[in-house]
């Protein structure tokens, strides 16, 4: 979270709502350890990362859904799916578990 | 027009932010699965726990585990019963530690020191160089060090003993018994995770006699990695610094590596120098 504090502060000062996604677990190989953090504001701006670029695009959509209230805060998992070559997943073959919530605490 | 509204109140976040800005240790425990998803505790050593996970006994157990995780800088997921019971899985808690940079204290302002300072900085350590000889311990010689201290090792260690913990490292590079012995004796009196001392096997054998005479027992001596570093055939100060830092990483991770301490024969192999 340390590395995205300045972005959070800038967004909050501008009146934006912010969602935080953190890596909370990995099965198998994964590019970033638990604690890796990505933040998304209600204008769709992004800072930080939770993988090597594999799932960030999908996380933005989930984070916006959490901010809009169409998705509950909670754990979202992304895994590798070889029957859907272009599905969102980690190229290294692992599964990544993210906890996504609004910054309302 | 949510983008132009006032920001949501976020009191716990603000405590975490202030601790991070001050480089003070803080940890955040969040329920990610179970009855109160999103409930949080903010835990800081020596300060009252903030927030609640919805059950006082669960709060107590999680706060205790979070402090322990923070002490070693670990971020992990743990499972509990609804009231903090072990071996139950009703509640999943994500514990995120924000520990300040680990400390590396280097005794001896020698030619190997500058290289070790540089590699230590790359690995994220807060690096202190300490030498009693003011001619050698100067800022100009170690521009990348966070701190250069003119003091005797034992006196300096007494001052910082409370701050040294399992994530920190003490490297003794002085090569001189009158500095080495008080540095090692002072280091084993702390909770520091890694202690390494430079010198040949012969140097270390005589140093070990002096350390025993100074009162160290086998358990204390076993904490000292000497000769310092792992056997990668390093020759230059920079290569030696990599060998030392590799040992520190492996030591913390509990991974078996060819430590020079456990080897035999010369530390410096013959062969062409690099470059």
Features:
heterodimer, A: alpha+beta, B: alpha/beta, Rossmann fold, 5-stranded antiparallel sheet, elongated
H-E order of chain A = HEEEHEE
What is the number of E strands of chain B?
11
Mean pLDDT of chain A: 88
Strand order of the largest sheet of chain B: 8-7-6-9-10-11
CATH class of the largest domain in chain B: Alpha Beta
Characterize the main sheet of chain A: 5 strands, antiparallel
Task: Write down the oligomeric state.
Answer: heterodimer
Sum up the overall morphology of chain A in one term. Answer: globular
Total domains of chain B: 2
How do the helices and strands line up, and which of them pair or pack?
The complex is a heterodimer of chains A (105) and B (275).
Chain A: H1 5-13, E1 18-27, E2 37-41, E3 46-48, H2 56-68, E4 74-78, E5 95-102
Chain B: H1 11-21, E1 26-33, E2 40-43, E3 50-52, H2 56-72, E4 76-80, E5 91-98, E6 103-107, H3 111-122, E7 126-131, E8 147-150, H4 153-160, E9 169-172, H5 177-188, E10 194-197, H6 201-213, H7 218-222, E11 224-225, H8 237-253
Parallel strand pairs in B: 6-7, 6-9, 7-8, 9-10, 10-11
Antiparallel strand pairs in B: 1-2, 1-5, 2-3, 4-5
Helix pairs in contact in B: 3-8, 4-5
């Amino acid at each position: 979270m340390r590395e995205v504090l300045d972005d959070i502060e800038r967004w909050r000062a501008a009146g934006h709502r912010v969602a935080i996604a953190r890596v909370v677990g990995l099965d198998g190989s994964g590019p970033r350890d638990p604690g890796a953090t990505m933040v998304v504001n209600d204008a769709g701006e992004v800072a930080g990362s939770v993988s090597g670029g594999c799932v960030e695009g999908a996380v933005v959509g989930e984070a916006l859904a959490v901010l809009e209230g169409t998705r509950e805060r909670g754990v979202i998992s992304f895994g590798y799916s070889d029957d859907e070559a272009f599905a969102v997943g980690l190229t290294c073959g692992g599964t990544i578990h993210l906890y996504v919530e609004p910054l309302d605490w | 027009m949510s983008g132009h509204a006032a920001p949501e109140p976020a009191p716990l976040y603000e405590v975490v932010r202030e601790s991070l800005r001050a480089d003070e240790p803080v940890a955040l425990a969040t329920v990610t699965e179970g009855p109160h998803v999103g409930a949080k505790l903010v835990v800081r050593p020596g300060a009252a726990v903030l927030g609640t996970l919805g059950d006082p006994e669960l709060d107590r157990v999680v706060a205790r585990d979070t402090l322990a995780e923070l002490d070693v800088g670990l971020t992990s997921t743990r499972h509990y019963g609804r009231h903090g019971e072990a071996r139950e899985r009703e509640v999943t808690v994500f514990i995120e530690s924000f520990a300040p940079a680990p400390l590396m204290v280097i005794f001896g302002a020698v030619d190997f020191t500058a290289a070790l300072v540089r590699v230590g900085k790359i690995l994220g350590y807060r690096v202190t160089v300490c030498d009693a000889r003011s001619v050698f311990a100067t800022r100009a010689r170690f521009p990348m060090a966070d701190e250069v201290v003119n003091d005797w090792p034992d006196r300096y260690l007494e001052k910082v003993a409370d701050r040294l913990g399992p994530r920190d490292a003490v490297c003794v590079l002085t090569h001189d018994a009158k500095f080495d012995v008080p540095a090692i004796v002072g280091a084993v009196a702390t909770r520091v995770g890694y202690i390494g001392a430079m010198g040949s096997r012969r140097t270390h054998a005589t140093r070990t006699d002096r350390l025993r005479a100074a009162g160290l027992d086998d358990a204390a001596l076993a904490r000292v990695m000497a000769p310092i570093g792992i056997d990668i055939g390093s020759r230059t100060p920079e290569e030696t610094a990599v060998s030392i830092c590799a040992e520190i990483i492996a030591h913390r991770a509990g991974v078996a590596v060819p430590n020079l301490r456990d080897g035999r024969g010369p530390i410096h192999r013959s062969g062409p120098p690099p470059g």
